[in-house]
Specification:
Chain lengths: 110, 118
């Protein structure tokens, strides 16, 4: 069975400090990994996908198959980054449902 | 484009009752998925509909059923409600399952229907 683990329920950092949101997964095949974000009073939305290898709003995430991790990083946190972040997995190559982690609430302090 | 719309936004039911939740996908999308999000948890996949058929199902009992209409809108039905069914139910739409490169895995979510079972 596939599983996504986000060990931190809450992460608080100061503005300008680096941010790392941890995500570990278990899956026997080649998964597709995603980060979704939910800002206050907004709906859940895609932040980035590992396949596209892009940087969105200064965030990057690298898939590490050896460590089965997909940590989300940003070198300098901004107050507008405060939100709920969910890591999600989809079995590779399909159009299947996503398996989400429990989420990490990121708070950026001024 | 209003994006994904869901109704009702809130509802209260008692144990044993039945509930129907509705979803209209984003314009141009023909695949609808339903997720259950309990308090403090991430969304959990219930099932996915495409071409009016259930294509994939998560680990949910048969009390959870759905339907997709020719206009791609969808309903989620839950029978014999339990207290544990209290949650936010999210609908998400995406371009067609079989559209290759268009199927990027990006889901567009609605704001959800919050169900409280007393």
């Amino acid at each position: 069975a596939q599983r996504v683990t986000q060990p931190e329920k809450l992460l608080s950092v100061f503005k300008g400090a680096p941010v790392e949101l941890k995500c570990n997964y278990s899956y026997s095949g080649s998964p597709e990994l995603f980060w979704y974000v939910q800002y206050s009073r907004q709906r859940l939305q895609l932040l980035l996908r590992h396949i596209s290898r892009e940087s969105i709003k200064g965030f990057t995430a690298d898939l590490n198959k050896g460590e089965t991790s997909f940590h989300l990083k940003k070198p300098f946190a901004q107050e507008e980054d405060s939100a709920m972040y969910y890591c999600a997995l989809r079995s590779g190559g399909g159009a299947d449902g996503l398996t989400f982690g429990k989420g990490t609430h990121l708070i950026i302090q001024p | 484009d209003a994006g994904v719309t869901q109704s009702p936004t809130h509802l209260i039911k008692t144990r044993g009752q039945q509930v129907t939740l509705r979803c209209s996908p984003k314009s141009g999308h023909d695949t609808v998925s339903w997720y259950q999000q309990a308090l403090g948890q991430g969304p959990q996949f219930i099932f996915q509909y495409y071409e009016e058929e259930e294509r994939q199902r998560g680990n949910f009992p048969d009390r959870f059923s759905g339907h997709q209409f020719p206009n791609y809108s969808s309903e989620l039905n839950v029978n014999a409600l339990l207290l544990g069914d209290s949650a936010l139910y999210l609908c998400a739409s995406s371009p067609g399952r079989d559209r290759g490169f268009l199927n990027t895995g990006e889901l567009f979510f609605g704001e959800g229907s919050r169900l409280t079972v007393l």
